[in-house]
Structure formats: structure tokens, C-alpha cells
């Protein structure tokens, strides 16, 4: 049996916003639906596990691996899902850069069908990139309605 190499999906963006503001949004693990345009709900169902529902009717669970405010890094793994992959681990990092922040959202996984290119593209371009774009104008968890 051939060994299947892990695949990495990556999206990165510079955002004209303070890194600590972006981190506050990202670190709110069950708040994904508040800022990601493709997520209709994100609810904590158990300690560190959220159930995520998408616009297209999809449902996954994601388990928080760790969240480090000092390095502004959050890691999570997929739990229940229907994707043709295993060993999924995602990471979002926020780094101050110039008058804003560089945000990188990535995931590594091992495909269980094909070479994983379709899944890499779906995560990077179909999920991560729209989420990063939305972070530019997303409301921080404690901001009043109508403000960023």
C-alpha cells in the first residue's frame, strides 16, 4: 500500500486592522458564525467542541486543540465530518505587521481519496479565504451592534 503524503491548504491575508482586534474575534471559538460569511451557526456542544453548520447545509464538529493568546495562534481539528480525509489539523495565526496584521489560516490533512488537491483548494479558496476577507470588517465579540 502506497504511503499518502499529507496535504496543506493555506490562505493568507494582510488586514488593515490591529492584530489584537483580529485575535479577539478568532479566539472566540464558538463565535465563527458571527464573522464567517459561509457559516450559519457555530455552537459549543461540549467542552472545546463546536458544531458548525454551513450555508450549503453541511455539518461538522471541530475540536479546539489549543488557543495561545501570547502567540495569537489557535489550532483545531475536525471531528465528525464527511470529507474524504483524515488527520486534519487547522491553525489560524495572527501577527502584527505594519499598520495591520498578517493572518494565516492553514490545515494539514491526509486525503483518503485521490491526491487531496480538490480538498486543498476547497479549504484554501472556498473556506479560509472568504473567512479572512470577512475579518477585515467583523465585529469584535464585545463591540456594540453597528460597530467593528
UniProtKB/TrEMBL annotation:
It comes from the Bacteria. Pfam families: Polyketide_cyc2. This is SRPBCC family protein. InterPro entries: Polyketide_cyclase/dehydratase, START-like_dom_sf.
Amino acid at each position: 500500500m502506497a504511503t499518502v503524503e499529507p496535504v496543506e491548504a493555506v490562505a493568507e491575508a494582510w488586514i488593515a486592522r490591529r492584530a489584537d482586534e483580529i485575535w479577539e474575534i478568532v479566539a472566540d471559538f464558538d463565535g465563527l458564525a458571527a464573522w464567517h460569511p459561509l457559516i450559519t451557526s457555530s455552537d459549543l456542544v461540549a467542552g472545546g467542541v463546536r458544531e458548525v453548520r454551513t450555508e450549503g447545509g453541511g455539518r461538522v464538529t471541530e475540536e479546539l486543540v489549543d488557543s495561545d493568546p501570547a502567540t495569537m495562534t489557535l489550532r483545531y481539528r475536525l471531528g465528525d465530518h464527511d470529507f474524504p480525509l483524515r488527520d486534519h489539523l487547522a491553525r489560524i495565526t495572527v501577527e502584527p505587521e505594519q499598520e495591520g496584521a498578517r493572518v494565516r489560516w492553514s490545515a494539514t490533512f491526509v486525503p483518503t481519496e485521490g491526491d487531496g488537491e480538490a480538498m486543498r483548494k476547497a479549504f484554501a479558496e472556498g473556506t479560509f479565504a472568504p473567512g479572512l476577507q470577512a475579518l477585515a470588517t467583523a465585529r469584535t465579540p464585545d463591540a456594540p451592534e453597528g460597530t467593528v
